[in-house]
Amino acid sequence: MQTLLRTRANELAWETGFMERERVLTGSSFVVGLISAWQADPQVSLAGMSQAIGNAGTPISRQRVEQRFDARAVIFLRAMVEASLQVVVKGTPVDTGILARFTRVELTDSSIITLPNVLHTVWRGSGGFGEQASTAAVKVSVRWNVRDGQLDTLSLSDGITHDRQVAAHQNPVVAGSLHIKDLGYFKLDDFEKIGQQGAYWLTRYKIGTSVLDEQGHEIDLETWLPQKVGQRLDIPVHLGKQKQLPCRLVAERLPPASVQQRHERIQEIARQNQSVPSQRALILAQWTIYLTNVPDTLLNTEEVFILGRYRWQIELLFKLWKSDLQIDTWNTTNPYRILCEFYGKLLAAIVTHWFLLLGCWHNPHRSLRQAMPTIQGLAWQWANSLAQLPLLEHMLRSLCRALSHCQMDRSQRFPRHFQLLESEFA
Q1: Using CA atoms, how far apart are residues 326 and 328, in angstroms rounded to an integer?
Q2: Which of 91, 245, 300, 404 could form a disulfide with 357 if both were Cys (CB 3.0 to 4.6 A apart)?
Q3: d(CA 389, CA 58)
Q4: How many other CB atoms sit within 10 Å of the CB of residue 118?
Q5: pLDDT of the residue at 426
Q6: What's the Rg (C-alpha) of the chain?
Q7: In the chain, where are the structural domains located?
Q8: How far is CA 328 from CA 315, 343, 374, in A?
């Protein structure tokens, strides 16, 4: 933290032209003050920002803070985001249960941040239709190793960029690792490459993908899948008429209430995109279907479903960033300040994640939702302690003690996900 937020911050401030006279405003005070201010209160006023920057080491008026939100500040804060991604921070890895069977368990997903159209030359959006349509948008893509909590890859790209083109998807994989991906990353060639590198993949079925039996005959999923609610199927298949990629197909017939919820979600997405719901999608919504190359000797049928549902943890991560840290909101029409808020709040999200890894990742019962208010309440304290290592260490120990109590209780009637990951529940 000291190297990045003090030494490196000042270096980048000089390199980007943000800092011209150190006695006026240092890069470290600016970035630490803004991170701590937005971490504590994402809707903080200019007066609150000036107080936070003063707390970080440089007194400054709110009028001067507003003036510093210019093109140089944008370049500086973006450079700080890139520098933060070079810092490797891991928590204590999970060494028991299902996750421990793999060298890494990587969740990959992206989230779109819609920006005002005036920023379309900085980050290009897709335009088009729907409530999220914009000519300016940035895609935040993450590959997250949930064994030790490390943000293995975090990249920014134009909102129009396809998921399969981002670094979080394209970076090499580690042998023995498991990669759980959403449908935006579905490509048989990519799954084949993962297998060739000695790793595993798990994904939902993508409508339109040909499924063949072991004799090479195409399967009619609608009649072939389980017809009784709760019934499951786990068999070897091949994917793609040409590729014929070998894997397992694991499926379960859902109850009517769950099917109805899926139908409503499909219809809502179609409404937002001003399109007609796919009849095939409505029919196949009656089943949960997973595809994986993990052998049944490593994951049984129940464990495939457990890990398939575990992909939602990365959705919860994005929810924390958007709901608690509000990386997608701003109280200004100044395009420079909008970009500064986005980059600054993303930095706040990264620092917050470091605290989560330090303070509670070792606890399988951890609750990131409960931990957020604790971290936000100590934002000004860590910023004030950053310059002096003994004070920073004392603050971090206090944080760890507080976060150790941020955990979920066990439930026998409705086991929580951390319980399901313990092998005895599978």
Answers
A1: 5
A2: 91
A3: 19
A4: 12
A5: 45
A6: 24
A7: 2-87+332-403, 204-309
A8: 15, 10, 22
| Buried/exposed code over 369-403 (b: 16+ C-beta within 10 A; e: otherwise) | eebbebbbebbbbbbbbbeeeeebeebbeebeebb
Average pLDDT over residues 31-36: 97
Contact criterion met (CB below 8 Å) for 284 and 221:
yes
**What's phi and psi for 336, nearest 5 deg?**
-65, -45
Rounded Cα gap, residues 361 and 350, in angstroms: 15
Cα distance between residue 116 and residue 321, in whole Å: 19
Question: Which residues, other chains included, contact 167 with Cβ-Cβ below 8 Å and sequence gap of 6+?
Answer: 141, 153, 155
E strand segments, 83-164:
105-114, 137-145, 151-158
Residue 364 has pLDDT above 90, yes or no: no
Does position 97 have pLDDT exceeding 70, yes or no?
A: yes
Per-residue pLDDT band for 114 (boundaries 50, 70, 90) equals very high
> At 12, which helix (H) or strand (E)?
helix 9-15
C-alpha distances out from residue 177 to 90, 107, 205, 338, Å: 16, 11, 21, 38
CA angle 194, 243, 252 (to 5 degrees): 75
- pTM, two decimals, is 0.91
Q: Give the model's pLDDT for residue 104.
A: 94
